[in-house]
Design goal:
The structure is a homodimer of 452-residue chains.
Chain A (H helix, E strand, L loop, with lengths): L5 E2 L9 E3 L23 H4 L5 H7 L5 E3 L2 H7 L7 E3 L1 H7 L4 E6 L10 H13 L4 E6 L3 H13 L2 E7 H6 L1 H9 L3 E5 L5 H9 L7 H14 L3 E3 L6 H6 L1 H13 L6 E5 L4 H15 L6 E7 L4 H4 L1 E6 L8 E6 L21 H8 L4 E5 L1 H15 L5 H20 L4 E6 L7 H8 L10 H8 L6
Parallel strand pairs in A: 5-15, 6-7, 6-9, 7-8, 10-11, 10-15, 11-14
Antiparallel strand pairs in A: 1-4, 2-3, 4-5, 12-13
């Protein structure tokens, strides 16, 4: 037991601040625009949807934002999370690379999402809000917010995409266990849902529709606000607790990273992992390559364009300057539900344009294969989303096996796959598809970008 | 952050020995008997089923058995596990009691079962065994053994009770993810299964039938052995890593336990938690009350008898002196599948007869209610089995709220409930039953105990 396998930190080492990367960038990201006026949106535009503290964090110029004691107190239920050296995976690959993974699957809802759900619930409760609404696809975000609302006595109302509502009953039940109300979306309880159901009673829904329903209800009630699980600056900032801990833990291993790999959907897992390391890189203290991995079925970084677009399908949100496949782009039904988003965090898109991060895309079946290899060596079954980062990590480690390079690779397993076993079962029986994405589908969606 | 919520231990603090309580008892437990001769079974009788190291551990008189380096190396993937003070649960109960729980749900398969699955796979592999067979009900044990076999390159073949095979596809898939072969039991691949299917092609199976199938296959092949997930002495001993760590962690909190509460099915979780504390109690260093909690639907301690009985329904195993409801007793279908066993570990039964532990029984619905309360306060959703310990813990904490007693209570959440959400869903919709158990059913089963 000479060299450690797992580095844990005492709860006194939970970060006391979130890290806001914007002041450290050479230029700030372009602002969101009001779709009618094409002027930057202000706090008043957002106040019906978000509490003032979060609106302030969205545009904060402070490098470090203190984490409230009450939030730290909830974080202590599962944070700090472990950083683990994947010795068994390394051995199975015969690689001289040293692979480390930050494991976020030990949280109450089984993913990294509570890192932001808890402060979002806290700031809403502190402002006197009584209820939060949100949308969820596969359910990772919905179950995290339901847990957080239970901690602060808030009601929680979730619109879950009908297809997932029917196919993923476990996540739906978990939200109800935490006391949330779960609607299949489209639902008859909103005007936008009712309108869609009138046209198509069998509609299986989409994230765009579910956002519309959650936003509609939040906007109608003074005691209700809306919560988003990724994309926005404050959400990414809350997730930096992952990277801050990993920075300290990797140092405890005596390592400096050469390459950091994370999966990206809306961007919160990737940003949470890499922003603290990017800070160190900008300060000249280390030089890691930072690489985002997205699914080939939804390649906003690698095949999208950088333009102003709507955050939702229906076009209700402000216009966001981001890497996008077009707000009308509907990704094929890959099982990594958390990566099926047409756009990308505006902040990460800006950083990508600045040349500070790389991006690659991976196919669904090679990702599930990586997940299987990881489970059989490291024990933990990863959710489909982080298998994208693992597929890239394994490919890189195999390159090192060829070259002999002792590369230090850091990645994150942002959630466990115990809710995703039907997808693994389908992979094992050879039923998964890689969904070749014709350029024409992207071109068609991009042709319908809003004129800015 | 003055008083800690969670005490973690560095991996150097993983126990280096398992604790064997037998030498510390005033008398050893009565031996297993061969059903034909009624003589104590010897190593030769067991050699077709178990490797010699485990047979030796079953009858060991050493107080401490060193944990092999290779096993420690796998334990390091998730051990030491955290000990957490349930501050939020305490607050919701308004109790002056201080409640601590050892959390075993962070293991690769989500329960405490890998603590023994890993050494069992290791000793078999070290002896040149190529394949392990086992039975599983809900699947906690089967998935733990599948994980352990993947670590040591062993084939793993699991007979899963047909009813669970059909109703709990997630656990079945998890076993396959780890590379195991899973048969619905009764199966056509064994003689005992085929015989039953010939009589009743729609038979939904039982643990007793599944044991028969796994034992039959192990007995037929020189390179194959059988593995059991609870009941036996060596299994309980492997689980003492739970209690050894908790002993150190509770001391780090500055606490001495007044009451330790654990759920019991076959007894491995309870024994693993309490044996190290019982050692300390026997040495006069502390005086905790040790209380087992079983389901009212399967009350082997509180309504069973202490007698020699078969470990399986069909009567293939040696005769074990234990608390039993009779090997033909079929428990009602409560969702705590891990507690649906007609008997009780012979070692725990002996210790109960010595007056060293208490036992109580709890109804299914109050247990699920306790699970809900725990999830909404502490975040972690417990599996149905440990909700029995939590229901008793909550009742005790409420008594303390009345009396003002600052009792220190230790319990264990031996697994997470992410695989058990359909059961919680049924509870939430009021569909769960408490299954009153008429004395006549027990009397009838006890009337068919083997004559010894």
């Amino acid at each position: 037991m000479s060299e450690p396998t797992r580095v844990l930190l005492d709860e006194s080492r939970i970060p006391r601040n979130w890290y806001n990367i914007i002041p450290d960038l050479p230029s700030p990201p372009p602002p969101p625009l009001h779709p009618a006026t094409l002027q930057p949106v202000g706090p008043d535009d957002l106040a019906p949807l978000f509490p003032m503290e979060l609106i302030g964090q969205e545009v904060s110029e402070e490098r470090f934002v203190p984490i409230p004691e009450s939030v730290l107190d909830v974080y202590r239920l599962w944070r700090p999370t472990p950083l683990i050296r994947a010795r068994r995976l390394e051995k199975s690959l015969g690689t001289p690379a040293r692979i480390y993974y930050k494991y976020e699957g030990g949280s109450p809802s089984g993913s990294h999402k509570p890192n932001t759900a808890v402060p979002q619930a806290y700031y809403n409760a502190a402002q006197g809000v009584r209820r939060l609404t949100t949308e969820t696809g596969a359910g990772q975000w919905g179950s995290a917010l339901a847990f957080a609302c239970a901690q602060y006595g808030l009601a929680c109302e979730v619109w879950m995409v009908r297809a997932s509502y029917d196919q993923k009953p476990y996540r739906r039940s978990l939200m109800k266990v935490y006391g949330a109300t779960v609607h299949a979306s489209p639902s008859a309880v909103t005007r936008s849902g009712s309108r869609i159901l009138a046209d198509d009673p069998a509609c299986t829904g989409s994230l765009g529709i579910a956002i519309s329903e959650a936003v509609e209800v939040a906007g109608q009630h003074g005691d209700t606000r809306y919560a988003l699980g990724s994309v926005l600056n404050h959400v990414l900032m809350h997730q930096t607790v992952i990277g801050e801990e990993a920075l300290e833990q990797l140092a405890a291993f005596g390592e400096t990273p050469d390459l950091i790999i994370g999966c990206t959907g809306g961007g919160s897992n990737f940003a949470g992992l890499v922003f603290p390391f990017l800070r160190e890189k900008l300060a000249g203290r280390m030089e890691p390559v930072l690489r985002a991995v997205e699914p080939t079925a939804c390649p906003s970084f690698t095949r999208g364009t950088y333009a102003y677009d709507f955050g939702d399908t229906a076009g209700f949100t402000p216009l966001l300057k981001m890497h996008t496949l077009g707000h009308e782009f509907v990704p094929d039904p890959i099982h990594a539900g958390g990566l099926r988003y047409h756009g990308m965090s505006p902040l990460l898109s800006h950083i990508y344009e600045l040349g500070m991060i790389e991006a690659v895309a991976r196919n669904q079946t090679e990702c599930f294969e990586a997940g299987l290899r990881f489970a059989r060596t490291e024990g933990v079954l990863p959710a489909p989303e982080p298998t994208h980062a693992l597929a890239e990590t394994i490919a890189e480690a195999l390159r090192c096996a060829d070259t002999g390079e002792e590369k230090v690779i850091l990645t994150a397993v942002c959630g466990h796959g115990h809710f995703d076993l039907p997808a693994y079962e389908r992979h094992l029986s050879g039923q998964l598809d890689d969904f070749a994405l014709p350029q024409q589908r992207i071109d068609e969606a991009l042709a319908r970008l809003p004129a800015v």
